[in-house]
Amino acid sequence: MLREIHAIGKLGVLLALRPKQPAVGELAKFVFKVAPINADGMDVDETKALEIVMSRITIFAMDRQQEPEPRYYTLTPLPEKGAYSFAMRIRKNVDHRVIVAVTAKGGKDLETSYDFQTQPAKAEAHAEALPGLDEQGHLEMSAQHETMQAMGRHWTEAWRELEKKNPRWRALTNHVEAVHKLQSNLEHFHLHKFAERKAEFDVLARTFGEQLKTLHDAVQRRDREGAWQGFKRIDQQSCLKCHLVFRWGAVQDFKQVPELNHEKHR
Ligand code: HEC
Q1: What is the pLDDT of residues 157-167, one digit of tens each?
Q2: Ligand 1 center to residue 60 CA distance, Å?
Q3: Domains of the chain, earliest start first
Q4: Any atom of ligand 1 within 6 Å of the Cβ of 149
Q5: Residue 237 and residue 233: Cα distance in Å, rounded?
Q6: Can you tell me which atom of ligand 1 is nearest the CA of 144?
Q7: CA 65 to chain centre
Q8: Ligand 1 pocket, 150 CB below 6 A?
Q9: CA proximity to 15, closest of 27, 1, 23
Q10: pLDDT in tens, 221-266
Q11: What's the pTM?
């Protein structure tokens, strides 16, 4: 494994690359963390890794004979807190440069670059993928189903809590946060049937994220009525709305989806 830390002010961007020197044909797996630099300035405190809210990764082979052909990626959150990854298949045995631009939670923009070396193709290069990520950084189909199934489970549990007179707020918070974390996978969904409508899908996914924040706030305030409203709004205007088009293909046009206003109906 290659492990490098680049300090930018009080923060450090940590890159871990596996394998250290990937071979042509092999999958290079990158994990990034943004964390405060330790007092000695040598390492970062990984236990305090920050949430990354936006990322832009550009990678190119530094081949003197040819125009660089950059490839672009975004980071996908890993189950470990504050860890983000992407993977790419190595095509050429030349030095590579990775330019990392991320926005950490709180609005801090960080940019840095790393160089790494590759090696010739191995006779039996067995490329194991990152769990759930294909070489374009898309979620594999199985991971998409798992994301949604887990979301369904947490959502049902959240509902059960909200239906109680005295919800267990701690449990409710955990379920809402789990759904929020899973929501961030949506941008990596690969829409096989609706590939040309990904932009619309992304808008829905982002709105969903914002609605989840509102719900989370209500839960933090222990405002049962507010949380209930937030829950219903998401259920209709995110889960159902997106599913009608992108899961079931039941409607083509979102205008056919009624905008339900719970505040008025209750
Ligand atoms: C931006 C679009 C979008 C939003 C928002 C969304 N989903 Fe989904 N969901 C999908 C798509 C696409 C599928 C079908 C593909 C799949 O399962 O991978 C799906 C499938 C599912 C499935 C079936 C999973 C399986 O494979 O068995 C469940 C359960 C589910 N979603 C729950 C939810 C819940 C609960 C919410 C809201 C809290 C939600 N989804 C919000 C797009 C969305």
Answers
A1: 999 999 999 99
A2: 35
A3: 2-116 (2.60.40.3340), 141-265 (1.20.120)
A4: yes
A5: 6
A6: 18
A7: 35
A8: no
A9: 1
A10: 999 999 999 999 999 999 999 998 898 887 777 777 666 544 443 3
A11: 0.58
